[in-house]
Amino acid sequence: MIKTHPWIGGTEEEYETQHFGFGAQSLKIAVRQMVEHKIKSGVKDMESYLQETLDLNDTDKLTLTHSCDKLIRLYCDRAGPSLEAIDSEIERLLQIPPNVLLPEDEVQLEQVSDEEYQKLKEEVALLRKRVERGASLEALLSAEDEELSSIENVCEIARKDMEILDLLQKSCLKNDVKMIKNATEFICSTVPFLKKSDLIFGD
C-alpha cells in the first residue's frame, strides 16, 4: 500500500553494497516494507482484540474489518511524507565520497590509469605534431609575406624609375640640362652604387 520505487540497481547501488553490505535503494525498500508491516499488524491486532472482547454479529465484524482496512490505507498514506524525509537521510548517510576507493577496485583503477596514461601520451604527441605543423605554416606564410613585400617595393621603385626615365627623355628632347641633372640625382639616390650626380654632370 505504501508507494515504493522498484529496485533498479546501478553503479552507485553496487558500490554502496560493496562498502556497507547494502545499498540505499535496498534500504529504502526495506524501511517501507517494515513500516507497512507494522501498520498492518498493529491494526489487525486491534481488530482481533475488538472481535474477541465485543459481542459482535457477522455484519458488525464485516463492518469492523472494512473500517480497519480503511485505517491501514490511511496510515500508509499519511506515512508518505515521513518516508520521503527518511529516504533523503538514507541517501545522505550512504553516499560514498568520490575519493574513497574500495580494495576490489584498486586493480581496476591501476588498469584504467595505465590506459588513461597511454591515451594521454598519444594526445600529447598529436598535439605536438599540430603545433609543429602550425609553426611551419606560420614560417612559410611569413616568408611569402616578406617576399611579396619585397616584390611590391621593387615594383614601386621600378615605377618611379620609369617615371624619371620618361621625364629624362622629355627633357632631352627639350634640351633642358637642369631638369636632366635633377632627375639624374634622384635616380642616383635610389641606386646604392651611384652616390653623386657629379659622376655624370660637373658643376
How does this model look, in words?
By secondary structure, the chain is mainly alpha-helical. Helix content is 80%, strand content 0%. It is built from five helices and no strands. It has helices at residues 11-20, 24-53, 58-94, 103-174, 177-190. The chain is rod-shaped, with a radius of gyration of 50 Å. The N and C termini lie far apart (123 Å). The relative contact order is 0.06. Residues 193-203 have low confidence and may be disordered.
Summarize the structure.
By secondary structure, this protein is mainly α. Helix content is 80%, strand content 0%.
What does the main sheet amount to? none
Q: Enumerate the spans where pLDDT stays under 50 for 5 or more consecutive residues.
A: 193-203
Structural class: mainly alpha
Mean pLDDT rating: 76
**Share of residues in strands:** under 5%
The end-to-end distance, rounded to whole angstroms, is 123 Å
Q: Helical proportion?
A: over 70%
Number of strands: 0
Helices and strands, in order, run as: HHHHH
Count of DSSP H/I helices? 5
State the shape. Answer: rod-shaped
- What is the radius of gyration? 50 Å
Main location: nucleus
GO biological process, one term: mitotic sister chromatid segregation
Protein name: Protein MIS12 homolog
InterPro entries: Centromere_Mis12
